User: What shape does this take?
Amino acid sequence: MEFEPLSLGNEVIEFDMMGLADDAMDIEHPVDEDDLLDNSTSTTTSASALFYIPPPPPDTNLEPYEGMEFESEEAAKAFYNSYARRVGFSTRVSMSRRSRRDGAIIQRSFVCAKEGFRVDKDKPGRVDGRVKRPRAETRVGCKAMLVVKIQDSHSGRWLVSNFIKEHNHELVPPDKVHCLRSHRHVSGSAKSLIDTLQGAGIGPSGIMSALIKEYGGISNVGFTERDCRNYMRSSRQRTLGGDTQLLLDYLRNRQAVAQNPSLFYAVQGDEDQCMSNIFWADPKARTNYTYFGDTVTFDTTYRSNRYRLPFAPFTGVNHHGQPVLFGCALLINESEASFVWLFKTWLEAMSGRPPVSITTDHDRVIRLAVTQVLPETRHRFCKWHIFKECQEKLSHVLSEHPNFEAELHKCVNMTESIEEFESCWLSLIDRYDLREHEWLQTIYVDRRQWVPVYLRDTFFAEMSITQRSDSINSYFDGYVNASTTLQLFVKQYEKALESRYEKEVKADYDTINTAPVLKTPSPMEKQAAELYTRKLFMKFQEELVETMTFLATKVDEEEAITTYQVAKFGEDHEAYFVTFNFHEMKATCSCQMFEFSGLLCRHILTVFRVTNVLTLPSHYVLKRWTRNAKSGVILEERASNLLNGSRESLTVRYNNLRSEALKYVDEGVKTAEIYNVAAGALQEAANKVALAKKNSGKSAFVNATGREDHSNQGSVAFNTCGGHQSGLEQPLSVDEPDRKIQKLLRQLERARRKCEVYRANLLSVLKDIEDQKLQLSVKVQNIKLGMKD
Assistant: This one.
């Protein structure tokens, strides 16, 4: 709907259409000064607009009235805003008029912030492929306003020409008025205090608490915690200044060096802008992601205002349980759009392969960005950051109830099921009367993204749910602190990379050159010692040894799947349940440790022990935890799994036969008659096995993975009449073309078997080469260390 301009004499009055938008700009209209006092924006001409009425003595409790005078436009604006604060509404400038003679402003209109109605510039629906989040409606067409005009160009005094007092909405009470936009202002004294406390490493919440005490209440502070955060962020930007150019120069120089042609870096916006976000990943970081990129941590520890350096690294966990770097970001702008850009850029640097899981700080903006860029990745909030935040948000509760924090940790970490956690949580908050606590309600709503019992079905490469892993500690611990500048960080970054590399080489050396002490006679322990790295084997060994204290009781059996109750002796109330498919050698436990960490738990290992599974099935040995985690990546996946398939098929056949034999043993000892029948059957089976072993080359084709291939070129038969085998027979009725086809099929089968044997031999040679390369790398590093000493 459009409005035509209204003409009154020599003055043109246009309706304020910008008042329909959220962020209104001033509309300025030129008018003749001679007509100024003869025309008013009011529909009725007021006597106070035509004649001079001397203002009454100043009174801070006054409300505006027509004819009121001010020394300047700014004085009028300040008075109306002060009046609005007392009454309980927010103001803004709606419209201005300029003189046609010299362009000077001669009229201002100040309105209630709820004046007008919003006009959506964009059509509802999708914006850039995503649904635009609806904003809260703030405009309700309020008519309250104050219009001032300059009295004459010589005196410079301003006169109230129109005042509308009534509002069409509820006014804000005095204890909430500090939340209104026009009344939020960080004063000079507040800025000085914020700067001092920020320099001491105190965060926004702590600073606001200090300001509230200093000013005697939140309403006296004059601004919100969000304003405090914005001021601290702008202060950090001023502190960094042009130092970001140092980082850009460093990255350009490294990329130009021939040894680092694959260094990746990107700048949000123009590279010449000092206040842009920057992301970079060196070649080693990108290579590490190909080995260990299944789970990622976006570490925002240094983004807090305690540190002068707002950067955030992407990290992971290597095969020794050590942190590895997947890239770094310098964060100047922390908007949702900036985090979306950052995650997209990082994913591009990592060849577009998203991780299985990602762990970040408990942050709304980061969550929105992860949801948009990594929709298939399981997003977890760092539990330890939430516990740290708890100490700040619940400080009054912790001071009154010292046991609350320990009970909260127990509720989160020690509950074994979702039902148990829900019950424990409700009991805890009711006991301390915290059901209405806003922060606790927030983290409860987000519980599926940080409470372990909801996350155990996803891989996070953590060995313990209750203890904090060393890998969660920041990659740059010991190299960045509260006094580290960006200029110093560029130097410390190189030192951190070198130190982490030396620790990885040392762990490789210990794994290759030191044999762990075995604590059981189990073949499985010996197998694990040869497969896993030293640190991971120690964790597996701990689980294996614990099986000696557990009992497994069969509680259900359905076809090929058996369910066991596993518990320590006399502790059936703390039992775990393991389902086991013996033929497929697959087991799952209610504790879900394998899904969460990639290592088998003591409960599944207990079931393996009682069912005589002597070696680890290959599908329970994750390559990322083995000493060969960084070898053979270029090989075809089928070839790389060849040897494991052969070993697994042998293990499966062994375990299946043992299981079947044990069934006859269990049944055969019940009576003497049954025992004789079982013994005769076993002797007959032994004779057949011996005969089959003697003629194994003629009875069947066995491929390299241990599977029997009974093809159509003949049939395997045993002639029991004469006590000897008839061998491989050909049908008498087969014509000549069919015989040639069968002959070619046999030749093809032999060629295929030879090919798979060659593949296995090639894989073995390549594995030896990788081991030799690793040993040489360790020796070179030792020589370097010796030269330093």
Observations:
- The mean pLDDT is 75.
- The longest helix spans residues 736-788.
- The first strand starts at residue 6 and ends at 8.
